[in-house]
Amino acid sequence: MKNFRRDLNIFLRTVRGRSYPRLIGMQREKSWIFFDTFLPLLATTAYVFIYRALNAPPEFTGFVVLGGAMTAYWLNVLWSMATQLYWEKETGNLSLYLIAPTSRMAILLGMALGGMAATTLRAVTVLLLGSLLFDVTFSVENWGALLLVFVLTLVALYGLGMIFASLFLLWGREAWHLAQLFQEPVFLISGFYFPVRNLGFWVSIGASIIPITFGLDAMRQLLYPQAQWGFLDVNIEIAVLALLSVLFLVLAHRMLLWMETLARREGRLTVRGQ
Amino acid sequence: MSQRFAIQTEGLGRVYQLKRKRGETAPKTLVALEGVDSEVKQGELFGLLGPNGAGKTTLIKILTTLLLPTSGRALVDGIDIVQDPQEVRRRINMVSGGETCGYGLLTVEENLWMFTQFYGLTDRVARERINEMLEVVGLSDRRKTKSHFLSTGMKQKMNFARGFLNDPQILFLDEPTLGLDVQTSRVLRDFVKRWVRERPGKTLLLTTHYMAEADELCDRVAIIDKGKILACDTPANLKRRLQRASIFKLQTTPLEMSNRFSDLPGVSKFIEHQRNGHTELNFILENENVLVKILDAVQAGGGHLLSLEKREPTLEDVFIDLVGRGFGDEETPLEVEK
Q1: Which domains are seen in chain B, by residue range?
Q2: Are A98 and B118 in contact (CB under 8 A)?
Q3: Contact A17 B118 (CB under 8 A)
């Protein structure tokens, strides 16, 4: 019991400590206002004008604005979660994390929570600006379900980011290229700027391994209950997201243990430039 | 392994598998550590002295649970580093010289605070220890400075401070004064001495390739080269090995064919360096009488003596005596074994 309390204390403090740089970084480095709000808004604007030119239903503008807001999370997971352990190794922090008597999951969780909090501000900014600029109105009937979908999407997405973090550490220098490789295709197959069901059943099912696919689809259905563009029933999508959340977190934990053992055996934890 | 030591190793070894180059069929390996047996007592300031690539850092990485050994066994505070690494981590910390820590966007005290959280320190204890360590390393007036505005030396000082925050039972210092100015190195060395002396039971393992640092600080020193411990004793006892020898340093005008010294009877070891347009010769002689023959040989080689110095033995001389080359020398020595 004493050990459990001690370990829990270290776990929670680690989460707090490691989330701090993310939270404070956002306040001190204001460049995100340009890169994380203005640039996604440009892509969003382009799609809005395309849909308007094609006389698409008005809810499509809302779909695009929501997709534009959610890009912040995907970019955060790719560039600040997946590649993070690799960069920590390159800067010399990783070995200091690993010699501390703390859980590696707590460190990743700290990064994730800090990243989520910081990114939520960016996503909300995009959502608000987009809604104001393009006169978007949402008609939410079930706020509870919407919040649940949003939270599950983030948990599953950052769980996936934790898995990537271990893999990218092992893949070393290729991590940068892998992040670039993943970035754009996911924008397409997850339906960031259009309803995913247009990709067909099997592609949409395949894309659901990226939590944002069903997350976006479910949120769009909940934001526009009358629209008929959903892929699967919201309840099914919530169940899949819940499953992915648990699966990814368990896998992330196992991957971390595996990565650490392998890296200690092969001496990869501290050798840089690999 | 019955008696409890701070650190104990038995036959500890580490072999790295190297990547094969194109066209190579057999896997290549690098032996970084081989059969290391060592015992560090609790409360001891123990030094590992050896040139770059000797295996010092590999040993520290193994003892701090960052690397698995490929053979042998190691206990830290009586705990097996392979079986229970997490329990080892509760008792240790490590500072690597030349390294920095934390994030440039955070201030010095924010960075240090972040690391205290990984050890579960309360904010009050964390604040006290941060204040104390910032005083020690002379960064109190920089506590609110973002670390990317610090000089390299200041970043190293911050990293040094970090190593003491969890008040570890056993601290590993890997070349802690590397690249620091003389004054700062002096301050840190003094603190390290105090830290061990004033806190009974605290153990410190220091790796260095600065002889004077090891000589000044360490209760005992292990001399390591090519992954093996060659000798382990107090600095005084190690130097006593050369008690009967005479140690001379000569500077001459450039000499050719200096290998002729190896043929002289009474020359135990000698190494040669070419420096700033002259030749520097370091001799370990069986007795002083051999010096006459050396001076004759210098003259015969067309050289002129520029300076002659007789020295008390240093740990570098012990290393030369054991290995046959100096710390900064290539692996192929110019010396001759008698």
Answers
A1: 7-239 (3.40.50.300), 243-323 (3.30.70.260)
A2: no
A3: yes
